[in-house]
Write a structure and sequence with these properties.
Helix content is about 50%, strand content about 15%. The relative contact order is 0.09. Pathway: Amine and polyamine biosynthesis; spermidine biosynthesis; spermidine from putrescine: step 1/1. It catalyses: S-adenosyl 3-(methylsulfanyl)propylamine + putrescine = S-methyl-5'-thioadenosine + spermidine + H(+).
Length: about 525
Amino acid sequence: MIEAPTPAVSDAPSPEPEPPVRLPVRAGLGRFLVLLTVFVCAACGLVYELELVALASYLAGDSVTQASVVLSVMVFAMGLGSLLAKRLRCRAAVGFGAVEAVLALVGGCSAMALYASFAWCGHSRPALVAFSLVIGALIGAEVPLLMTLIQRVRRQDAGGAVADLFAADYVGALVGGLAFPFLLLPAFGQLTGALVTGAVNAVAGSALVLWLFRRDLSGRARWALIVTNVTVLTVLAAGVALTPSFERAARQAVYGPGVRVALRTGVQEVVLTGGGGSGRPLALFLDGRLRVSGRDEVRYHDALIHPAMAAGPHARVLVLGGGDGLATREVLRYAGVRSVTVVERDPAVVRLARRDPGLSALNARSYRDPRVRVVTADAFDWLRRRASYDVVVSDLPDPRLTSGTKFYSQEFYGLAQRVLAPGGRLVVHAGAVHPRPHTYWTVEATMRSAGLWTVPYVIGARRPVFSVPGTDRAPRDWGFLLASRAPVPLRLSPRGPRPHSLTPGGLRAAAHAAERRRELGLPASTLMHPRYGYGD
């Protein structure tokens, strides 16, 4: 894709322009074909850029940081590429053909290489920076070469040529930007989509040079480009054929050999390992992050559900997230519950919780209970509805993930407060306290800023929680916040169902453990000024 770092038009004397090249078509059609190639290459360039951002965000979790790294490095590299390509202007046709072949190979294989770096090396940032540099430099090198080629077809003033190039480039970028989420990802997925894009890039670049500008090439250069492009297309085709095997091997490197279910939904990647008679504890991963561990999920859900249910009436319960059905399992143990509404954005997780033998056994087949209603919606949007609940359970993604930040904002808690019935309670899982106290206490400060009274408590994990390479170290605890419009007691019900792993004394100790690490004076997090991830 062609962007801002184009060479400035110099006032210095320039060498005599080369005479127009003899083309196999009329000059007008030749000019159109050059601009069509610009259009295709721009679309491919933007797809490479979006592919790097999307995959890095999935692997690392922070889309703002990953997008900033990719965009800034690529734009810088484009400027370098433009400068370096000036040396190739005397042989613009062969230079452009070589640049496009290398760009097709590097861009097409970038997603696979990035995923391999994450799976087998445990990190992806060095690979992300390296590919952003190389792809950006190659895209930047297109600018002076295409300018020379279009002038070789038909001489025109520099301003008109630049305007034509930019028009074709920006339209191509639009098409590439729309094709990536609406065509390539649904039809091919991330890895195959990048490989297919590389093949299109190679065909477009080689066709322009080997056919339209073939009289500019020596016999040796022509054969070199043919062999190079055939090799690139062969490598990309082999990558497409090997993608399923590669994904299985990479998934085993990340999750171990016990993967039972692996699917890419329209929302996220869902992986289920263990359970189902495999002899290993069940584990559910969403976008590479552990959401359910059969080793200690009971301890987590006891702490999430029972203090909130015991603190007052609980006839109507709203569960935000928790599509695995485990929070609902604990809610349904209370005889006074008349209805439970589960708001989950990914219906595939709910289907898995209903149909998978291991996960449905773990959640005690909670979705078969007639009191349970499942809604596929965004939790933020659902809270805008005029409803009333005695208990609201927020079991949502970590606040430090960009996709989850809005669920820990002042605006979100303002909406949550509005749906609480008189005496209603909100309970929030706010992340680990021991490694990241700043994040936890920022959530608490944000809830208070929305007019809620809060009671913090932290439960230690029974054993280290399994995590995949490249993610944060396993948390030693889970931090929770119980909140209401008025002060609320932190207790367990003396006559209600007994938690599996939590005692009144353990709950008091959990409150003391949180207070010992309290941080004061933290600002609230808002949609326009998220505060998470700083100071940890």
